[in-house]
Amino acid sequence: MNTSRRCFLQSSAAFLGAGSVSAADSTRAEDPRQHYFDAFYYKEPPAFQFEYPFDGGILQEGCGYPVLGAEMGTDGVKRLKVHVVVKASGVSNLEVVMPEGQVVPTSMVSGLYMGTVLLKERVTPIKARGKRNGKQVETVCRVVWAKNVYKRYRCYIDDHSFFFRDILKNNYKSLFDCFYLAKLRELNRRYKTKFNLNCFNSTPERDFTLSMFPDKYKPEFEDNADWLRLAFHSENEFPGEPYREAPPEKLAADFDLVAKELKRIAGKAYTAGLQIHFAMVRADSYKVLAQRGVKMLQTSGRKHPSSGDKFCDFMLPNSITAYIRENQGWMDFDSGVIFYNGALPATCEWTPVEQTIPLMHRKLDNPKLNSLINIAGHEQYWWPFYKNYKKDNFDRWEAALRYVTEQGYKPIWIEDGFFGGAE
User: Fold this and answer.
1) In contact, 67 and 145? CB cutoff 8 Å
2) Predicted TM-score of the model (pTM)
């Protein structure tokens, strides 16, 4: 091993010692969700682990360690260069093996096996194998490469029911006689923003349900489906966290109820590119969403400021939410759903105009998190009768959309392409 490579590996080992992903390991034993998750996904716990890359982690060129860059192969196909680190205590004769069978050269540094691999495919299973107590053991790390990344943003607004009720009550000639939809159209005309509206079946007071809304506006919804789409959110705003403990059948029934009505009301302006109310769903319900066309779900595993409890994390274990907080995304291979970190530090209605740009740079300046961002909010804050109405909400939204547009970000539908990007 030459001097430069030795220095690189030693510095990498030092970095690992302070890394957040390794720190997440220490909480694994105390996390009850991890036991449930392991039981759900594994017939038996992994024999040992990859420190880097993270199993199921989404990598892209330019995101930084463990990605070391990209290079063009002799066949003219680009490959992603990734540093591999394996922690395999008590394992002898360890080998890191690529899918085609070639063994990756590794070096032992500070008790860790380290090497470099070149990825060609979107998903590459890398195997580490060796012997422990005379028995062959192995672990697989599935690496996901988002190849076609560019600066893009997704915009969604949650908790919709009021604009439906308003249109029904006033029997408007056009959807855009409703001030709320007119404001969104104005933002679209200025910044080309694509708005994904996540919808309840009923208002909080239950004085309206989607079944009451006529289908006469369907042609107008479809005429504007290039920038305005409707998706499932929950049956009602209350209770909060409606699917935290709910069985898959409950989520499926609510989803199908709302989707059926939205398709009747909006036709091709319906989309499966949703966000779940409170972002809490059991792992055994992920397939319910995937089977209905859901490809990606936003979460960052936040902690409640007063209690410290995690919320809005889709019931994922700490080891995975720790990864997502620091990286762009993670794939659940059982369902195919990707969980991604896209939200800016606060939704628009919670961010005063003067704080918009400084808060955005927490993500825009981070290469691990800035290729895919969300601009998000909630419908209620637009309406003067709502107790927490923000009379400058339009200005807050415009400040966010104007700035990301100036920074070169392009609006997308999250359901298009892989990892929210064009194929």
Assistant:
1) no
2) 0.89
